[in-house]
Amino acid sequence: MKELVEIEDLCGFFILDNASNNNTEHINKNFVNLFTKIFEYKKYETSKGNIDESEILKLLKTRGMLNIATCKNDETTKKLIENINNNIFAKPEKDGKIKYLGLSKGINFEENLFKSEVGKYLDKFENVNKDYTLAILSGLTMPFKRIKSINEKITAEKETIINLSKVTETKLESISFLDEIEQTAKKVQENMTADEILANLF
């Protein structure tokens, strides 16, 4: 992630969260479906608002993480926000920072609710969509909290592996001790005296 941040002239990028679904094929298909919807903007050109090619490019080329979410037109802004926070992408940082918002909407968009729950943006590109509502969040902060949680999980699993290795070593030492007992038992069978047996053990 450090190397990614340091890339000069970095454009927008998506970070898929494999923990969002046990089926990675489902995640990939979902991503393709969402990404394809971005380029359906020409289907919804009306006198009430348009999103043009230059605005789509601005959304995709702006440095930072991207997030795409949809909801049905009979749902609400609250549902759209839920889908932004719980989808196939890494969860957005709760810092309220969005560079641009692309909104192809069919819902009654509650802008004040969106700004208070998700974040404020420099500019918004929107049109009217009779089929569904699509939100494209551009220029988001890196998901450092999610990365930190992954590192913590890896560290915990590493410690578990180390502890299991120690248990194995202890068992091996126990087996080695049992070998000594077995050898001693053989010596008993050879009619060694008790003093001789103790001398061999200690």
Tally the beta strands: 5
SS-based class: alpha/beta
Helix content: 40-55%
Radius of gyration: 30 Å
C-alpha termini separation: 57 Å
Q: Could you give the order of the helices and strands?
A: HEHHEHEHEEHH
CATH topology of the largest domain: 60s Ribosomal Protein L30, Chain: A
Q: Kindly estimate the percentage of residues that lie in beta strands according to DSSP.
A: 15-25%
Number of domains: 2
Mean pLDDT: 84
Low-confidence stretches: none
The strand line-up of the biggest sheet is 1-2-5-3-4
Largest sheet: 5 strands, mixed
Helix segment tally: 7
Secondary-structure map:
Elements: H1 2-5, E1 12-13, H2 24-38, H3 53-61, E2 64-71, H4 77-85, E3 97-105, H5 111-117, E4 120-128, E5 133-140, H6 144-189, H7 194-201
Parallel strand pairs: 1-2, 3-4
Antiparallel strand pairs: 2-5, 3-5
Helix pairs in contact: 6-7
What does this structure look like?
With 202 residues, the protein is an alpha/beta fold. It has two domains: 2-142, 60s Ribosomal Protein L30, Chain: A; 148-201. The chain is built from seven helices and five strands, in the order H-E-H-H-E-H-E-H-E-E-H-H. The protein has helices at 2-5, 24-38, 53-61, 77-85, 111-117, 144-189, 194-201; strands at 12-13, 64-71, 97-105, 120-128, 133-140. It has a five-stranded mixed beta sheet with strand order 1-2-5-3-4, sandwiched between helices. Helix 6 (144-189) packs antiparallel against helix 7.
